[in-house]
Design brief:
Elements lengths: L17 H12 L7 E3 L1 H7 L2 E6 L10 H8 L4 H6 L1 E4 L3 H13 L3 E5 L5 H9 L3 E4 L4 H15 L2 E2 L6 H17 L5 E5 L4 H13 L4 E7 L4 H7 L23 H10 L2 E5 L1 H15 L5 H13 L7 E6 L6 H9 L3
Parallel strand pairs: 2-10, 3-4, 3-6, 4-5, 7-8, 7-10, 8-9
Antiparallel strand pairs: 1-2
Helix pairs in contact: 1-3, 1-8, 2-12, 3-5, 3-8, 5-6, 8-9, 9-11, 12-13
């Protein structure tokens, strides 16, 4: 079914700039350090190229999203702080907003899908958020949030259509290209698209020749079909264990940026995503969730095209639940 994506009343704001990303740095670094960017010899043997991993899984909430929450919550108006904030999430975005809301004394409510990753739900509650389960997937949770905003007057923080979020997460892209300016490829997962959008904006502003390659699950490929095709599409359902990429729609702000600036996209099936999780453990000795490990599997799929190249894989998060991790590991034992 072809239709436009869900919209936000902030979706038409101008794109964030490199100056916005640079301005976000003191807000981000007040809480966390630059995340490690490391080479792993076993990974390089597996991929056949020089490979760097940007370890966003080492951040305080275990994911890249914290950067956006820190940047946005620090800039809320007094009126928005009074209203409290609400958002929909499958976990990493919600943890970011909950973490930053606790810092600033702002009431926070997060709506998640029924059956969401229980460890992520527990983390959001530990950060002080009220967590409500609603709907079969992220997009049904998001629709419920939009109804609650209209009925109750919360300040809605969309997971993608927020320039301050993109500027905040863009700080990791700036770190990457400052450390290794001559990267040939960056592989980055795409759910709502804020991480990839931040990478594109920073790459473009710095004039780097780095190609930004998005990664999606074949069971949640609405963005891929929209980016490759003549029109944006909405999927009827998603089917992937990688909840960080499990969206049925595209979003106005991030899609506009990526439609113009993204260089390529790789689709991974569930066995490939599972192999990415195992590769993260075996080759980098890190626990990564499905979306966080997806760039490793995507780089592997690129194969000989990476020979002689410098590659970076964004390990966007490590918040995989124990049950899912045990299943993936057991299948290879």
């Amino acid at each position: 079914m072809i239709e436009t994506s869900a919209t936000s009343n902030r979706a038409t704001e101008s794109w964030p700039t490199l100056q916005d990303v640079e301005a976000a740095r003191p807000r981000v670094y007040a809480v966390m350090q630059s995340s490690p960017m490391l080479r792993h010899p076993l990974l390089e043997e597996w991929l056949g190229c020089e490979a760097w991993v940007k370890h966003e899984n080492h951040n305080p909430t275990g994911a890249f999203k914290i950067r956006g929450g820190l940047n946005l919550l620090a800039q809320l108006s007094p009126e928005d702080r009074r209203r409290g904030v609400i958002s929909a999430s499958t976990g990493n975005h919600g943890q970011s907003i909950a973490f930053a809301s606790r810092m600033h004394g702002v009431r926070c409510r997060i709506v998640v899908p029924v059956g969401n990753n229980p460890d992520k739900n527990a983390a959001m509650r530990a950060y002080g958020a009220e967590v409500i389960e609603h709907g079969r997937d992220y997009d049904e949770a998001r629709i419920r949030v939009e109804q609650m905003v209209e009925d109750e007057g919360w300040r809605y923080i969309h997971s993608a259509n927020e320039p301050h979020l993109i500027a905040g997460v863009g700080t990791y892209a700036l770190e990457m290209l400052e450390q290794v300016p001559d990267l040939d490829y960056v592989f980055v997962p795409i759910g709502g698209g804020s991480g990839a959008a931040g990478c594109c904006i920073v790459r473009g502003a710095l004039g780097a020749k780095t190609k930004i390659v998005g990664v999606q699950a074949s069971g949640a490929d609405a963005f891929t079909r929209s980016w490759r095709g003549p029109a944006r599409v909405t999927a009827e359902r998603v089917n992937t264990f990688a909840e960080g990429m499990a969206t049925r729609v595209t979003f106005d702000l991030t899609f506009a940026i990526l439609e113009e600036m993204l260089d390529d996209i790789v689709l991974l099936d569930e066995p490939e995503l599972e192999e990415g999780v195992r590769a993260a453990m075996r080759l980098t000795h890190n626990v990564a969730e499905g979306s966080g490990a997806a760039p490793l599997a995507a780089a592997k799929q690129y194969g000989q095209k990476l020979a002689g190249k410098k590659v970076a894989c964004v390990m966007s998060g490590g918040n995989i639940d124990l049950k899912t991790l045990a299943r993936i590991v057991a299948s290879a034992v």
